[in-house]
Automatic annotation (TrEMBL), chains A, B:
Zn(2+) binds at residues 194, 256, 275. Catalyzes the conversion of 3-deoxy-D-arabino-heptulosonate 7-phosphate (DAHP) to dehydroquinate (DHQ). It catalyses: 7-phospho-2-dehydro-3-deoxy-D-arabino-heptonate = 3-dehydroquinate + phosphate. Its EC number is 4.2.3.4. Residues 77-189 form the 3-dehydroquinate synthase N-terminal domain. HAMAP family: DHQ_synthase. The gene is aroB. Pathway: Metabolic intermediate biosynthesis; chorismate biosynthesis; chorismate from D-erythrose 4-phosphate and phosphoenolpyruvate: step 2/7. It comes from Aureimonas fodinaquatilis. The keyword NADP does not apply. One of its GO terms (molecular function) is 3-dehydroquinate synthase activity. GO terms for cellular component: cytoplasm. It comes from the Bacteria. This is 3-dehydroquinate synthase. Its main location: cytoplasm.
Length: 379, 379
């Protein structure tokens, strides 16, 4: 298990990856310390900030100020907000902007934003001059607990999400838990689905803690810092053991095979479904499917689903607004997902609350039967 | 030093990179064995061949035949020949073609061609699904002795060559020395400049061997296999010691700082100058500059230059056809090169024949004075 170091209201999680190890600093007001934290680790560098049109008006000027105060000159490129920014043409724009500034390999790209910006900026940092320094400043709960840690970067292809990218680790992650208070309730909730995921993977005691403390996590304060730190520590431990997703890292995909299929079936229309909501429904489906296969008791499956419902997350396919899905459509989307290996379907299933495992040999027929039952269920 | 294993007319060089180690098979007729060599290492995979309009008519059908006979189904994408293919839009085409075939991470991209195809296909293999299997089948001397070994992949930016890419190792390199007989004399000579480079870096005995055997290397036969194998072994040893170019790998850039500046000043117009010719002139300049700095005797510098001249390679800036260059233009191109670190100029200089070293602190003024003298020299 990865340690969590506490210092005042903040916590530090170390991702152990040998020469590529790095710290995640988590707490209120971390943004104001960004300049000194970066300058302390890499004096004399310059920075290119990649951000989006939602985040820029809120934090970009402050960010450039604190960098300047620490002696770090920075430029900024502001991309459109939203998933469409994870494209080859936007990647080209970011790369060109960094090269136009004549930044060198020791200089840094900073991602200031949510998962889209982190994935895009990290990919750019990984390929400019075959790899520059990279720093993540995630501004959404989803990015703080999931996408900013672990080094997965990338963009989407017209043929599927995240099909193009590199494994590329940041040198530092700065997670300011105060900035999460500017998120919409829907966006915070969507990120919270990934928080619950860590409990359901292999930490039943964390799941129980969330059942008791979820209101405080949503309200802010020390419980929020604690929750983010525990998620980062959990992800750090998995990543340290399996950096390039050949084995146990796949557990992090709990809820994601069903979730990605639902997002694809909804045409990635965020008015209908955002990623965290897809994961929430996906985790509910994974637990119900595990119950149907006799792996977990109906009681435990219901308990997992109920906590997601308590915080207002969707748990039924029928809760997705718009045209109904068919079994064929969902099965086609599942087959397109990159977690298909040599034609067999891989799912993360569970043997109990917080006892998930990788099941590599699931027959398409069983999945199809299960989904038919779910689609027939009343809303 | 990396071992060379001999087997019949062929030789094998192993690139030692821990879990990412791989073999380079060198010899006549290797192409005909490609299917069995690939299938033996990775049974059951599928392949996407990336090639260009020059190579496709010569070898593509044969390549797909030998793969089919070994049970490997393949698709092919044929790109335009030439440096302009190392672009973001061509990269997008290759990536999309591989994804369209629904290849998985364990399947392979095969680069069948020269350095341009190897760099482009390797980059694509490195980013599709965050890294697929990759096999190099280099068809030029330059690619066999240099670009196919070591894992540097990438494309050009309007702001400079090779500024975008990843370090990504192939799983196998198949260098058929017979296919080199279809190269034009100019192209073979250009590749030979990189062969001479290995001698001049740190193998004076190999340089002497080349002085004696260059005609046989050009004619084909065992000397050609021997030369390619010695170059691959030399490069493999450097790469194994410094995979990501933080230290001694920079020695491989002997002749390249001047060479790249000349290529850029000639607008990458291959009618005026191809890469190997730029490297030949660059190595001549590096030796003369070293002599001017009092590092090497004039006699040794002249001997290095004379061998390049013997095989018909250019060694003077004035031999480049077209408009004359100015010192300012060349200095500007040198400053743009990515081997500039924190504003200091880095050159590979030499203390004797085959005694090159990395000089990181060369003042722009000295370089500028030296180039002024070279530009004044008669053609």
């Amino acid at each position: 298990m990865t340690d969590i170091q506490a210092s005042g209201a903040s916590k530090t999680v170390r991702v152990e990856l040998g020469a590529r190890s790095y710290d995640i600093l988590i707490g209120p007001g971390i943004l104001a310390r960004a300049g000194e934290e970066i300058a302390r680790r890499a004096p004399g560098i310059r920075a290119a900030i990649v951000t989006d049109e939602t985040v820029a008006p809120l934090y970009l000027a402050r960010m450039q100020d604190v960098l300047r105060q620490a002696g770090i000159a920075s430029s900024a490129i502001v991309m459109p907000a939203g998933e469409a920014t994870k494209s080859l043409s936007c990647l080209g724009e970011v790369v060109d902007s960094v090269l136009a500034d004549r930044l060198e390999r020791g200089d840094t790209v900073i991602a200031l934003g949510g998962g889209v910006i982190g994935d895009l900026a990290g990919f750019a940092a990984g390929i400019v001059r075959r790899g520059m320094r990279f720093i993540q400043i995630p501004t959404t709960l989803l990015a703080q607990v999931d996408s900013s840690v672990g080094g997965k970067t990338g963009i989407n292809s017209p043929r599927g999400k995240n099909l193009i990218g590199v494994f590329y680790q940041p040198q530092l992650v700065l997670a300011d838990t105060e900035v999460l208070s500017t998120l919409s309730p829907r966006e915070f909730r969507a990120g919270y689905a990934e928080v619950v995921k860590y409990g359901l993977i292999d930490q039943p005691e964390f799941f129980e803690w969330l059942e008791q403390h979820h209101a405080a996590v949503f309200a802010g304060g020390p419980e929020r810092v604690e929750a983010v730190a525990r998620c980062c520590a959990a992800k750090a431990a998995v990543v340290a053991g399996d950096e390039q997703e050949h084995g146990n890292r796949a557990l992090l995909n709990l809820g994601h095979t069903f979730g990605h299929a639902l997002e694809a079936a909804a045409n990635y229309d965020s008015a209908r479904l955002v990623h965290g909501e897809g994961v929430a429904i996906g985790m509910a489906l994974a637990h119900r499917f595990s119950a149907q296969l006799g792996l977990i008791s109906g009681q435990d499956a219901t308990r997992a689903v109920r906590h997601l419902q308590t915080v207002g997350l969707p748990t039924e396919i029928s809760q997705i607004p718009g045209p109904r899905f068919t079994v064929d459509l969902l099965m086609d989307k599942i087959a397109q997902d990159k977690k298909v290996s040599k034609g067999k379907l891989t799912f993360i299933l569970t043997r109990g609350l917080g006892q998930s495992f990788v099941a590599r040999d699931i027959s398409a027929e069983k999945v199809s039967e299960f989904l038919a039952g779910q689609l027939d269920a009343p809303a």
